[in-house]
Amino acid sequence: MKDFKKIKVIKGENSFEIINPTNYPLIGHGAQGAVFKLSEDRCVKIYTNREQAKMEERALKAGQHLSFMPKLYKARSNYIIMEYFNAPTLKEYLKNSMYMPEAIAIKLINILKELKKAGFSMLDAPLRHIFVLENGDLKVIDHVNSFKRQHPAPIKLLRELKLILLKDSFLMHVERLEPKMYKEWEKFFDEKDIDFRKISVSSGGQGNAVNVDSALPLPLIGQGHQGAVYRVSEDKCVKIYSKEEHANQEKKVLLSCQHLPFIPKVYETSSNYILMEYLLGPDLNSFLKKQRSMPEYITRHLLKLLKTMKAHGFKQVDSPLRHTILTVDGLKLIDHVYSFTREQDRPLEMFKDLHLLNFLDSFLEQVKVLDEKTYREWTKTPIPLNELVKKQTYTGPHIKDELNKKIKTPEQIVKEILIRE
């Protein structure tokens, strides 16, 4: 088991690199590091920041007496070995629920009360960090910021329950079972209730991303060096920029191209924000990770999208997979700040993403069959893959568990819609 120490997790200014020469599968990664399964009951979290490792170690040790806290087996300067849960997250568990089960509501209330009693300042947890065991018990992971962030009310929990239409049902249980707690939350959110038009973000955050207020009641769904994206309703989101220049550049692209099928609808703009369509569906990077081979119909849609961009005067002709969303209306492309200003006639970001998924060669072969002229334009000079992948590299076992499931995922449903089209 000690060979997990060969795994390297490196976070650069604009990159995240995982080098995994072992057979331990990657089961999750984020801003703090990456998690690998060691056995049926243990996993290891490897951190990119040693201070964050110390913060989570402190929180886990302080909460070992709590029934919902993962067991801590070993902690060192850059990793922690802890209990692994082979169980659905609460988000998955509640996916088809029409109301919040009282038994789950009671357990969530007790978790929040116990966190407060133990002196934690972050009385909160997103649904994806809560696991439901076979016996119905709940377990909560990711405690790095438990003593750092001030969340006297469950901001993340409530905003995620709102997205799956269970917030009101949960609050009904809270009001009946814990009226004092309910009033405290009500007062907190009344004070925090804010119009998205009054939100501001600033440059200079971690990893070159903008700084945001983590205590805002709106769900943060994206954060980069240009700005932050919040979901404001079921079908709308707002992108708030740190620089007026970036807002104006993207506004020009979106408003002049509303007739193009891959451009999100715009509802309202200002000097530092754009209120636009919220796109329901997986990004293409997540979708393709679950495929055994490059789907030819995806190649056709990408080729059509890129040729449309070029025909309508886009200077940056590219479609990064993380910015390409599969929806019931076809492919939609987000992040257009540099579409009219940055000269780029080949989709280099897309090439890099496909290369990392081992799909670039098959993609180009399909393009050659579908549109030989475009293929020649893209390949007349070598694609600088070595330079591109320096920015982001992942080597190690691929997770393909979803391929073995017989239940249709949202991605599979979208795939069928695109095939019919």
TrEMBL record:
InterPro entries: Atg1-like, Kinase-like_dom_sf
Recorded superkingdom: Bacteria
Name recorded for this polypeptide: Serine/threonine protein kinase
